[in-house]
Amino acid sequence: MSLLVEIESLGMGPRPLLLNTKLSIASGEVLTVMGESGCGKSTLLSAIAGLSILHLRFMGRVTLNDRPLDALPTSARRIGLLFQDDLLFPHMSVRENLLFAVPPGTKRARAESADAALAELGFEAMAHRSPLTLSGGQRARVSLMRTLLAEPHAVLLDEPFSKLDASLREHFRHWVFERIRARALPALLVTHDAADAYDATRIWRWPDLPAMNPLDSQPS
Amino acid sequence: MTLSKKSGRVGTARKAALSWAVVPIALIVPVGGALVALVGFALMQAANATAWRALFEAHWLLQSVVMTLWTGLAATLCSWSVCAWLLSRAFGSVWWPALVRRLGTLLALPHAGFAIGFVFLVAPSGWILRAISPWLTGFNQPPHVASSQDEFGLGLIAVLTLKEVPFLLWCAASQLQRDDAGALLLKQTHAASSLGYSSTKSFWTVVWPQLRLRLRWPLFAVLSYNLTVVDAALIAGPSTPATMSVRAWQWLQDAAEEANAIGAVAAWSLAFVVALATCAAALWLCAKRDYAQDGDRGSERWASIFYSIVRALWCFICAMYLVVFAITLIGSASGLWPFPAFVPQSLSWQAWRSVGSSAHTLWLTLGLGVASAGIALVWCVAWLECAPAKWDARARPLLCLPLLLPSVLWVTGLHRFTLSLHISGHAIGLLVAHVLVVLPYVIIALAPAYQKFDARFSHISYSLGKSHALYLLKVKWPVLRAALLSAFAVGFAVSVAQFLPTLTIGEGRFETVTSQAVTLASGGQRSLTAAYAALQWLLPALMFMLAAWLGAPRWMSR
Amino acid sequence: MSITRRRLLATSLNISAISLGCAIAPKWAGANDSNWKEIERVARGQRVLFNAWGGSSNVNAYLQWVAGEMERSHGIRLEHVKVTDTVDVVRRVRTEKAAGKSTNGSVDLVWINGENFLAMKREQLLAAPWVDSLPNGKYVDWEGKPTTRLDFAEPVSGLEAPWGMAQFTLYADRVKVANPPRSTEQLLAFARANPGRFSYPKPPNFHGTTFLKQTLLDLLPTSQRAILYRPYDAGQFETTTLALWAHLDELHPHLWRSGKQFPANAGAMRQQLLDGELLLSFTFNPNEVANEVSAGRMPDTVVSYQFDSGTIGNTHFVAIAFNSAAKEAAQVVANFLISPVAQSRKADLKIWGDPSVLAPSKLMASDAALFNAGRATGQVERFAPVIPEPHGSWVDPIEKEWARRYGA
């Protein structure tokens, strides 16, 4: 399993962010993309996931396990996303949030997967609570578990640790990478904090765009 | 020294607490008092056993109630569904900003004006049939089809649906365009998409369940309006059986006092119907739904087909408004115009000349609209600024009374009330009446943006050593400029559209564009009626445009 | 003091007017000359709120002219309060009375007749009798036009001054209808031959109710008509109206929308005739068609006419509310409204076209000449006899019965 991203140009509105770049990630591998905030890291993830974002321009190719994704909508790409915010749905309980991610199947099989995920989290007691009553760390875990329950073929992580406090952060980082590795998924992590990098050898620094007017390249 | 300092601080704290309570009390007492008083006056009229007996013995009662429920519920359900469908495809898409921009223009047109144009479009001698006659239909005379004021109330349902969809969309937009809520919901749909859910399915499982609850007040307002509307029902609704509101209004119009009493109790029974329907709607909204049950992801192909359907629906709605507006303008300049001519045989400026000769009508409409919307806006800002959230939540049903009560009912109560204050028939009474109707709309328009304003801005502002007043003037209000202006425009449009309060509390002494349009509609001069109907549209539309222009963000967002 | 004297005087004169007719009018007008001068003096500077239907731009323009004249000649500020329905005015005055507002009311002068007058008279919402003191009363055709004394068979009692005449008049486009029906029976045959092309406004709309009364009177043998001119008698209602309901049962299936729906008012019917939905319509103003034709709002092929055997006619009046603060100025305005100058201008088709209440024989030659305008296109060619309105108290039971039978 592998994720291949070939970028001819990536931009937001009239502003180009990245030109002629190729990123390749093997299964079980985590590529860390480092860059200043505002350089366009999140935009890159949106392009790979195929999110419909206003003014997003992307020329290039995304291939997952030799399957071209460019013509597919987000829902068909099988790319899991983990954001800065946990984005748990406030109108569903913790268990419903997990169940929501389980692929279609018999009612029983789906319930079993959701309950297994709850057990893995150790959150059985909170199953029917509103996600809003959970702590930040707990929500982050449910969120990752939800992403993984949908059985993605690759995972994109958009600074998922940045909102957690330092003590929690380390622990959660290990917890996340452990699960991604166990499932042998290619993963792309964007961050501006070198400490978040999973593997120092797989760090890719966001390039400056030298051809541009220096004023335009100011982070906004 | 320390002690005195301490006690001094306690004193200021108490003073602060006192002044904190004084302002909202000073705000709510006159408004709430007036509303309670007018309901009291209306209640006094309900205590009439003879009238109740006469009402229940009326053989048309059941038919009227059925017609009221049918048209009111069907129109509400249609506009609610269409609004949801449009949102499901428009929210987060490139199409969304364009849709939101257009809403003001669509909202601006009062129901009566729209109904006048709509009826001329669909009537047996209407524009649609003229366009295809006689070459396609062979009709040289209008056919015998009951396409306007039909006995099933379909025309009324169509008018109400077409009018309420933009209102609901606009309420939804004011929720979704708040940076926090809108962005969060958008991210949540992205999360759902990444879990494999199609774009429509993501909307229905993630966005709509959260949004629908936030749209409960607009929904109740639409429901109540649809069940109690008088002017549009008179123009586009069936005359036999007429809806309860029209019946009540006709009884209240009667010269005999006994008939007026029946009208008053009919208005009360209509209020009862509205209350029941609102309770049912509330239960329906709050009913628990299971969104995660089967894990079905929905199909993206169906989503794209649905997208085309919904866009076509939106284009249809816009086209209806455009055509209705065109027909109103053409009608206002028409001379002789027999069937099946598509355009008038002769044009005439009589109607517009006549409008020009009564410019005071225009000025009064403008003045009343600006004054009532302005007062309501200032009141709402002061209220939202000073009243604790709990107070606001408690007071909201009271403030929204004019929205939730049948207009025939609260207008009679208000008339008795203004009479007791000796301001009925005076400009001040008219202004009070307009402010009371405008207020709930302004607070509904303003509150979401106002309450979700990030309080951290104030902390930053204070930490920079700025006073509260300076924070309001330099930070909060400028940031909320667009919301304030659009709430003002809504208030203005509501004031322009008022007929019953203008006529009743103004005692017929004051003419506005709307009272003129309805008065003239009774005289049947189509060109003059159309001219005032066109003005009914133009005045609020201009105000919305002005608000949009003044409220445009300083920098276009990326 | 002076008010008391005037009221006494007016009451006594009222009695004489009723018993002797109006032959003596000039005499008492002269006797009151100084009194009238006093009224005119008090009236100067007063503001009169004239509550009148505002649905016609012609009427509105005419009243604007009256306002200008009053300002110029008497220093009276006349304001036209445009109302949709006179019932609103009745209700407003009633509410004011209930609220104890006995002075400074919102109505000084009101354009009124029939049911509304009856209601205001019975509930004592009108100012004490004043009409007989109007100097211009001497020109009014009290004898030739009995409806100036009996408003819907109710004695006017000096509470309202006649202003204009109205008579049930039908109209049709002669290009589409060569031989319009000239009686109630012919009308039924016409409806049968042209299904869906005739209707009448839904009672209690004034024109709709008038159509019912016209039909009822036409169907009744002359001997039975007298019943309708006495106050309502519940015992005789059924026998009197039996023929009407039988006739309507026959007529309705052939009406517009099979008689299941009715137009809202006469204005709507006029528009439907112009749109071609209806072939025949009616009005209460014999000059309406001529007016509309001359304004270019109706083709010049539309003709108006009346049933040969006569049609219902009435007079419309102006009355003063009990709580008016400008009773004197209101009387001065009412007096001006029945002057030859004002009446002839009102009768002018180009201005309004409302028939005069004056008797040509009572006018001086120069004044009479004001009325001699030529015939206009669309005008009624041959005026039929006026059938006075039945007593106002019959209206409500007829409307109620109609609503019970057809107004579901």
What's the helix and strand layout?
The complex is a heterotrimer of chains A (220), B (558) and C (408).
Chain A: E1 2-12, E2 15-26, E3 30-34, H1 41-49, E4 56-64, E5 67-68, H2 74-77, E6 79-82, H3 94-101, H4 107-121, H5 136-149, E7 154-158, H6 166-182, E8 187-191, E9 203-205
Parallel strand pairs in A: 3-8, 3-9, 6-7, 7-8
Antiparallel strand pairs in A: 1-2, 1-4, 4-5
Helix pairs in contact in A: 3-4, 3-5, 4-5, 5-6
Chain B: H1 2-46, H2 49-57, H3 61-90, H4 96-108, H5 111-122, H6 127-131, H7 154-176, H8 179-194, H9 199-214, H10 216-228, H11 231-236, H12 244-253, H13 257-286, H14 300-332, H15 350-357, H16 359-386, H17 389-399, H18 401-404, H19 407-420, H20 427-451, H21 456-463, H22 468-479, H23 481-497, H24 500-505, H25 513-523, H26 526-551
Helix pairs in contact in B: 1-13, 1-16, 1-19, 2-13, 3-7, 3-9, 3-10, 3-14, 4-7, 4-26, 5-7, 5-14, 5-26, 7-10, 8-9, 10-13, 12-13, 14-26, 15-26, 16-20, 16-23, 20-23, 21-22, 23-26, 25-26
Chain C: H1 2-20, H2 25-31, H3 33-43, E1 47-53, H4 57-74, E2 77-83, H5 86-98, E3 109-112, H6 114-122, E4 150-151, E5 154-155, E6 160-167, E7 169-173, H7 184-193, H8 206-219, H9 222-225, H10 234-251, H11 266-275, E8 280-283, H12 288-294, E9 302-305, E10 311-320, H13 327-337, H14 340-347, H15 365-369, E11 386-388, H16 395-406
Parallel strand pairs in C: 1-2, 1-3, 10-11
Antiparallel strand pairs in C: 3-10, 4-5, 6-10, 7-8, 7-9
Helix pairs in contact in C: 3-13, 8-10
